[in-house]
Amino acid sequence: MPTIKVMSAGAVKSMVAALGAEFERESGTTIDYNFGTAGALRDRVKGGETADLVIVSESAIAELAKLGHVVAATATDLGRTVTGVIVREGARKPDISTVEAFTQALRNARSIAYTDPKAGGSGGIMFVALLEKLGMLNEVNAKAVLGKGGFDVSQIVADGRAELGTTFLSEALPVKGLTIVGTLPGALHNANTYTAAVHTKAVNRPGAEAFLRKLVAPATRGRWSEAGLEPAFPA
User: How much of the chain exceeds pLDDT 90, in percent?
Assistant: First the structure.
């Protein structure tokens, strides 16, 4: 039975896994999933690890293409996700309608979960930059509960180990026991695009290309949206 190795960022895990299961049934191909943070996967590829299909942030794919690790011509945008604020189900929802209100919510929270930027997660790196911009990095880090990735952050909040959390909505939606408060307000609003490309040393390039076509089939656009990801490919 043919196999393809897929290295994928966690932000698009729900859709990669769901469409991957269908692809396996339809094609008879087995998918070897390797999920992780975009930064960690980028570094693994740069370090010499090979795969058939690599799915990381748009900027990481551009870097890998420049270094010759992925085939630039195959780079395909999949979806965009935005950063949101989450609390445990049943908890009071803080006001995050303005930058000022969000700042106050951060100050009021007894504990705040976000992805450890050292793990290479795009969400954590972006949130640290945001905190530096607000001049709140030290204040928030004094009560931070760091997760290995967005799903971990979501689970931390759902379990009550942190009062407030921030992560990509696509990583929060699959976790039970959460309430999504909303997206970051005003100038703090951000989106991150995730892109796929075939590795230059792909063992099963035809299989990787076939799975990529499955991921961006126009009929899947509604499902990407339901998963908290704005489709980044044509209808």
Answer: 92
